[in-house]
Design brief:
This protein is of the alpha+beta class and 274 residues long. The protein has one domain: Jelly Rolls (Sandwich). The chain has helices at residues 84-99, 116-122, 137-147, 150-157, and strands spanning 8-15, 23-25, 35-37, 41-50, 65-69, 103-113, 132-133, 161-169, 179-182, 192-198, 203-209, 217-219, 227-235, 247-249, 263-272. The strands form three sheets. It has a five-stranded mixed β-sheet, with no helix packed on it. Strand 10 (192-198) and strand 11 form a beta hairpin. Helix 3 (137-147) runs antiparallel to helix 4. The longest helix is centred in the middle third of the chain and has 16 residues, at 84-99. The radius of gyration is 18 Å and the shape is globular. The mean pLDDT is 94.
């Protein structure tokens, strides 16, 4: 069978429970790897199911992630600054259609590769290989307030808003270091541990994750340039819909030995529901 038809098994990295709050030091593009201080981890081998086989397909409000077809007009993501507005218009329309939002604000783009040479040449970051979610309730609200003018930010904080990532390949199909997402229906709040996140530009929080055998993991084999993976990293709604999808890169044992390096971009959007 072809790789895109198969489930797989792989080791993924969970946080070991501790009384100490972990501190995450973000990687530097093209240079230093990410660090975790005050945290110990364990590798667990888990089944990672082929999400292409889900019927019905995964959705943002049920599983917390969704794959959508998207033919971008961008030809070179390493020169995104030349067409940034065009791409941000593309993914805004994409996310609003999938989420039911009324409008959105794109606020971040991050290029990654699992090749040290490419990271050095292109000044990109490494894949995130520890299970995590990008925001806590507190840091999501802080990000909202930081990005919007004072009056608007305070008003929006009292209404429903979400943060949704758009993740895609920027060159070829993803065979090495694909992204695994956990079905939000199998995630418990007790599994999550707030970790301070320190980066050059700001200090925030993310969520690390402790082992729970109920977790059910999925990935989309051989994601290609004409697809985008939407990942909900925060939703202020508490009405039973998915509020987050924990995720991680993993080493796929099904990848051919000569598979090309992963090269990807993730973009983050604040989404509003007027």
């Amino acid at each position: 069978m072809a790789i895109h038809e198969l489930d797989t098994r792989a080791s993924i990295r969970y946080l070991l429970p501790s009384v100490e709050q972990p501190i995450y030091i973000a990687s530097t593009p093209g240079a230093d790897a990410a660090l975790n201080i005050g945290a110990e981890f364990e590798d667990r081998e888990v089944a990672i199911h082929n999400a292409r086989r889900l019927n019905p397909q995964a959705t943002l409000d049920r599983q917390g992630f969704a794959l959508v077809p998207h033919q971008t007009l961008i030809k070179d993501f390493y020169r995104l600054e030349l067409n940034r507005t065009d791409y941000e218009d593309e993914i805004t329309a994409l996310v609003l259609a999938a989420s039911g939002g009324s409008h959105a604000l794109v606020f971040d783009h991050t290029l990654r590769s699992d090749s040290r040479q490419i990271r050095g040449d292109r000044t990109t970051r490494e894949p995130a290989s520890v299970i995590h979610n990008d925001y806590t309730d507190a840091s999501a609200k802080k990000r909202l307030l930081d990005l919007l003018p004072d009056g608007e930010g305070q008003a929006r904080a009292g209404q429903r808003f979400a943060i949704i990532n758009v993740w895609r390949s920027v060159r070829g199909s993803v065979l090495r270091s694909p992204l695994a997402c956990c079905d939000a229906l199998t995630l418990a709040d007790e599994d999550l541990v707030a970790s301070e996140r320190r980066a050059q530009e700001r200090v925030g929080e993310l969520e690390l994750v402790c082992w729970n055998p109920a977790h059910r993991w999925y990935y989309y084999p051989e994601m290609h340039y004409g697809e985008a993976l939407l990942i909900k990293t925060f939703d202020s709604a508490t009405d039973g819909r998915a509020r987050r999808s924990i995720h991680t890169a993993f080493d796929n044992p099904l990848a051919p030995a000569d598979a090309p390096a992963r090269e990807s971009i993730e973009s983050r959007l604040l989404v509003f529901f007027d």
